[in-house]
Design a protein that fits this description.
This protein is of the alpha/beta class. It is about 45% helix and about 20% strand. The longest helix has 21 residues. The two termini are about 40 Å apart.
């Protein structure tokens, strides 16, 4: 067999290899057209373009980036878990059908159709919480997280896309190690790619102290990532089943403003208390059960230890999405908000790379006289993505939207508020990657108080921004136009 293989290698020329690659690319292209029903038509055309313009590179990119994991059934629920969740969902659907509120000024009354969408489409229960605190500064967020961890007596659950092996990451892991030594049950879930600098040696003391950790999509061989395009991008924390964190901050020096490249890091973090902790628990345990293979009852862990009799006063739905499903649940929820807007739409995002339906929804809103304001960063962390962001910003400017470029460091916040009544924040960027490829979680909040605070912060950030206008678009160079044109062709696979 070895002699046959060696003879074949000696016989094959560069031309033979290229013919073989083109044949393989043709088979892949036919499969994309006739077999892969999950990809959009524009994504299929983008891949075919890459496969034929850059055949060898395109083939490698396809094999690494375009795996279909929807068939893997990553988050399996037991029959009892499905029955329990199904019963709760049906109860709430019936309540919404019968009139969730009698007050037409109540946010849940005005947005009852969106609540039903999330119940029916995303299996997301509407749960009241007692308090939601908004934090925008990385140093403040990290100090609060460390304080809550120090005070923890029973359980600590963390899920982060990025924890780096730097001063910030080491401080967190050292504290988690001490809490594990005290007997607190600590679970740490990190994305294998995003947290690749944290290896077994960095977690040895933590594990020895009794802490448990797991890598999401851990490769068989370290640093060989064959699912590089699918990332657990969530940022969640639950402390003692009393305090929950959800937002955009990861755990690394740059998120505390220590990076010379990015400077001040502007993000949004929600600190939540109340019964909605049950939903954060459920999300964490689904991810944890898949990554760690630990057998546990999600319903028992989520409800029994988190649900309290004090219902609170702020209605929230925790909505998640990921490539295991083709529903794009968070995107659909955001579109429902945008198409339901009557007065204003405020968006903050580091990447403005949505698909055509989302762009059309924003354009229609702006043309309808709705105050559409979108804030993006002044600097790129991904050049191709930033070029596409500017291109899409230019399209929306022509439709009447107002685009603001944040100049006080790097804008990483992922927020959307509509009419000062409903808002969302979490890990999901306003781009196709977050909608389709990453595992994301967002809180959708039906409360004027929280939405009003988000709007007020947006307006404060406007003082540190400049408006991006049609004049700016008219003055961009030929090189910039070419870079944008090339980048936007890759939108579906960025």
């Amino acid at each position: 067999m070895a002699d046959l293989f060696n003879s074949l290698i000696e016989y094959m020329t560069f031309s033979h290899i290229m013919v073989f690659i083109y044949i393989l690319n043709t088979i892949i292209s036919l499969g994309l057209i006739f077999v892969d029903t999950n990809k959009s038509a524009s994504a299929i055309m983008a891949w075919i373009m890459i496969l034929y313009i850059l055949p060898a590179v395109g083939l490698f990119m396809y094999l690494i980036l375009s795996q279909n994991i929807a068939r893997m059934k990553i988050f399996r629920m037991t029959a009892d878990e499905e029955a329990g969740l199904g019963t709760l969902l049906e109860w709430q659907k019936e309540a919404v059908r019968n009139g969730i509120s009698d007050n037409p000024e109540d946010e849940t009354y005005k947005w009852r159709n969106m609540i039903m969408l999330n119940l029916d489409y995303a299996d997301s229960l509407l749960i009241d919480c007692k308090d939601i605190e908004l934090i925008y500064d990385g140093r403040e967020m990290f100090d609060r997280l460390l304080e809550d961890i120090r005070n923890a007596k029973y359980t600590i659950k963390l899920c982060y896309y990025i924890i780096r092996d730097d001063d910030t990451g080491k401080e967190l892991i050292d504290l988690l190690t001490r809490k594990a030594q005290e007997g607190v049950k600590v679970r740490l879930l990190i994305d294998a790619l995003g947290s690749r600098s944290i290896g077994y040696s960095e977690l040895r003391a933590f594990k020895k102290a009794g802490g448990r950790y797991a890598y999401f999509f851990k490769p068989l061989i370290r640093h060989m990532y064959f699912r590089i395009n699918y990332r657990n991008h969530r940022k969640l924390a639950v402390i003692d089943n009393e305090t929950g964190y959800i937002g955009g901050f990861n755990i690394a020096d740059e998120y505390l403003g220590k990076s010379k490249k990015f400077g001040y890091w502007r993000d949004t973090q929600l600190i939540i208390k109340g019964n909605v902790i049950a939903a954060l628990n459920e999300r964490f345990y689904q991810d944890w059960r898949y990554a760690s293979k630990e057998k546990l009852d999600i319903v028992e862990q989520s409800i029994k230890y988190a649900y309290k009799s004090d219902l609170g006063r702020i209605p929230v739905q925790i909505v998640s999405c990921g490539p295991e499903s083709d529903k794009e649940e968070i995107k659909r929820s955001m579109m429902k908000m945008i198409t339901g807007a009557r007065e204003s739409i405020y968006i903050q995002t580091p990447y403005l790379v949505p698909d055509t339906p989302m762009l059309d929804s924003l354009a229609m809103a702006a043309r309808s006289g709705i105050d559409v304001r979108i804030m993006i960063p002044a600097m790129p962390d991904h050049p191709f993505v930033y070029r596409t962001t500017l291109y899409n910003a230019g399209k929306l400017i022509k439709e009447g939207a107002h685009i603001y470029i944040y100049r006080n460091g790097f804008l990483h916040a992922k927020t959307l508020t509509v009419d000062g009544e409903v808002c969302t924040a979490g890990s999901c960027n306003f781009d196709i990657r977050s909608f389709r490829l990453n595992f994301e979680s967002n809180a959708f909040i039906y409360d004027r108080g929280v939405a009003g605070r988000m709007n007020a912060q947006f307006e404060e950030d406007m003082k540190l921004s400049r408006e991006y206008t049609q004049e700016d678009r008219d003055n961009i160079s030929l090189y910039e136009r070419m870079a944008e044109s090339i980048s936007r062709l890759l939108t579906e696979i960025l």
